[in-house]
């Protein structure tokens, strides 16, 4: 993982941002260190201490000196931004194609949104906090969220767009879909009822991609759904259920990320882009 991140960043980013930058370390080295930080769930100080203790890790990427922890913090602000993140993410997918993990043609892709935690308080604690109160106070909080498009076969993330909830997943769908269709030739897109909208069908099918989305948004009614493609889904969904069953693959990706990296973010900027995920997760 550490080595792959370094190699991908080396293909995507220049060694230094400026000709007169200090030549102590390179941008790809910093990217690899930031990825390591997330997989080990460290803070910036912990990352610097870990690298100081493990010479073998530094040797893998040719890091001669350990950067100060504030250097990692500043690198996260610049290297996890949209443009560098997209280039690094594209390089990761290119590496996956060369290795045969990901094909250029993706028969089935799925989209879904998931919420993250902005603090280290369990949902169980939040639920039990007012369990004994007869009139518990209702509190609502904003939380980070992200919409993924994934390849159902390889579980590779084709795009991931961050945002802030509570909000509909439709808000981020446009950007997530535009990035995904640029990176792969998708045959069919699977989505749950949160994405049930005629404009979603039209946007996806305008790229020659089929959609399978259950027409269940809104109140139950005996009337046919509004819109051509929503009516088509109503008529054909029973025959498409077998293929639609593969939509759970995107849920698997969400679960893997949260189990490995945790659902609580350890750092978040004032904008809705979480800063503590490996580059490319939020292109």
TrEMBL record:
Domain of life assignment: Bacteria
GO terms under biological process: DNA transposition
Amino acid composition bias (Basic and acidic residues), ranges on this chain: 273-283
Pfam families to which the protein is assigned, alphabetical: DDE_Tnp_1
All residue ranges annotated as the Transposase IS4-like domain in the record: 109-266
Chain spans, region Disordered: 263-283
Listed GO MF terms: DNA binding; transposase activity
Signal peptide (residue range): none
InterPro entries per UniProt: Transposase_11
The protein's name in its UniProt record: Transposase IS4-like domain-containing protein
Organism phylogeny: Bacteria, Pseudomonadati, Planctomycetota, Planctomycetia, Isosphaerales
